[in-house]
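Service request form, structural biology core

Requester: graduate student, group of Dr. S.
Request type: structure prediction, single chain
Budget code: on file
Notes: please return the result as structure tokens.

Sequence provided:
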Amino acid sequence: MVDLKTANIIPEETSESSVLWLMQAMGFRYRTPQQKVYMRKESLDIVCRRIGALRALRHHREEGRQVVYEDETWFTTRMGHNKEWVDTTQANTSASYSRQVPLGEGERFVVVAVGTANGFVEGSYRWCPAKSNEGDNHGEMNIELFHQWLTTQLLPSLPEPSALVIDNAPYHITLTEDSRCPTSATKRENHIKWLEHRRIPFPAGATRPELLLKEYWLYSIVARGLDFFTNSHR
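Core staff response, request fulfilled:
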């Protein structure tokens, strides 16, 4: 009632009984719904991971990093829309009446690209013919294709510093020999080279266990498949 009066939908002097009478006259009845609606409740793990990702994004923005979002999709050469603008002054059999889309799905392609708040990143777009006409893009992309595109095409196109946001696709979180963290058997100088190569800061006098702890923390982020990943190894 208060909201309706505040929004000037009903006069200020309208009584509650008048509103109830009007609702009933319109065909509405205040009763228990015939069917219960169940809503899936998120687990605490999902909630905490989303909060952690949002905090990480805010931290990256505060440090001046450009946040970049990556994803893949697919399309066919004969994809169309359910509705479109047609020229009704022409016969529906005329070539100028609407687009002449042949029957069938046509050739299928997989697309990968990244974008920011300002649009797509120039040089990041890549497409390739699909091997199958069934399923989605996840069946076509693999770690070899993704890693090649990431290292040879995307990373050289990104300004420094940047933060790359990806999802939990299997080929996004697979470790390569270059990205695999050192182990407890790795020498201290190799730990330092690994961190320096990725431009990850660490104390000058850090011991080998301290260096290993930092690397384990970075490894756990990738291994758990969190939805954010800092581009710090360029």
